[in-house]
Amino acid sequence: MSFVSPLFLWYFMPAVLIAVLVCPRTWRNGIIAVGSLLFYTIGAGAFVFLLLGCMVVNFAAGPLLAPSPWDVHGVRRRRILIAVVSLDVTVLLIWKYAGFATQQIAAVAHWFGGSVPVASLVVPIGISFYTFHHISYVVDIYRGERQALRNPVSFAAYIAMFPQLVAGPIVRYREIADQLPQLRSHRLDDIAAGFPRFALGLCKKTIIADSLGPLVEACFKVPPDQMTFATAWLGAIGYTLQLFFDFSGYSDMAIGLGRMLGFRLPENFARPYSSVTITEFWRRWHMSLSRWFRDYVYIPLGGNRHGAAQTYRNLCIVFVLTGFWHGAQWTFLVWGCYHGALLVIERRFGFDLDPAVRWKRYLRRALTMLLVVFGWVFFRSPDLGHALSMLGHMLIPDFDGLGAGVEQAFTNQRLVLLLAALAVFLLPAHPVTGPLLESSRSRPATAMRIGVMTVGLLYAAILIATGTFSPFLYYQF
């Protein structure tokens, strides 16, 4: 059940919000837990039992991981933590990577004349996200940063909360633990504050991202031997914009929904295409994922505390995992290694900028954007051969123009949207979206916000009613 489907927008979301408003405040977490499990069951079917099984194990382990006077040295707690995290990771590895692993083994066996059966498993939606939530929960308790939840309803509300269950943002337990027992009395205020953010995400997804989708699909479907310079660049730039508006649109909707339910979920984007270095890009893009890997992988490995060589090693490990986290394909692994290598190069040679020299900053911003666009070619391509061919055409100019299929998709409407999206990246680099949408002190700003959102929502509603919407791109991860 997608956020942009009529079933969600016109039935499920209003029903949950009305229930939260009408029922006693103490029922909030229960309503969210039941509604979220129903939401997941509609989308994933029997895989809800896999989710419930993981939830039972992690919830039961929580109290056992808390510091105890009977376990002074923490040996028992450490063993329990290792066992639970190993189980969470094993579930993720089996369902998401077993098919890829057996494909590689079968390919090697074929070289030696043998044969190995290839596993074919359907990847449960959201498994990467709720696995990371489970790991965050048990690790934060083990570290003594937060206490274990004793109420299974509150635990279910955290893990299965439908705004962030399928595609994030990844909410670390420490970020939401203090909010779970809070029973906010200003529920109408929460809805008034969260709805504009939800509406913004809906417009970004349906009006911009979905309009760019057919153009991007047409460009990436062109066979490598028919690819041209113009087609390659159009596809790469189009996907760069589509992915941003699709994923940041989902995050806006999730954050807005969370606020309407009384939770403040973490921000996931801060104008990433305004970055002047790749390091800064990763502080602005999918921030919840970056923070998760920093806290639970990079720092435990030693971070940057043990010299340059180990810092580079830790960065490479993190970005290999980041690439594979997105999917069991070599293209994702290469994309992760590509960004890891860029980060190592930046740390090794240093790229300090003088804020007073504006032209250098603009030049670095353009270079960073170019490097990011090249990386997205690996991320979107069906295989490495297609990605390398496309990059080759992007680097070697020709005058062949666009193919017939691409020209048909490249309508005037999409050209306007493409130019409008590019114009967004020329705005100031600091993030302004959240405060602007939530502020109500300025009457002119409030009136403008309401007017823009009303027009955008009407147009988005028309697009949804006519069926011209597609699943979120990050649903596959």
TrEMBL record:
Q: GO cellular component annotations, sorted alphabetically?
A: plasma membrane
Q: Report TM segments.
A: 6-25, 37-60, 80-99, 111-132, 152-171, 362-379, 415-438, 450-474
This protein's source sits in the domain of life called Bacteria
Keywords recorded for this protein, A-Z: Acyltransferase, Cell membrane, Membrane, Transferase, Transmembrane, Transmembrane helix
MF term (GO), any: acyltransferase activity
Give a yes or no for keyword Acyltransferase in this entry.
yes
Pfam families from the xrefs? MBOAT
Q: Which InterPro entries match?
A: Ac/AlaTfrase_AlgI/DltB, AlgI, MB_O-acyltransferase, MBOAT_fam
PANTHER family named in the record: ACYLTRANSFERASE, TEICHOIC ACID D-ALANYLTRANSFERASE
**So what family is this one in?**
Belongs to the membrane-bound acyltransferase family.
Q: What is this protein called?
A: MBOAT family protein
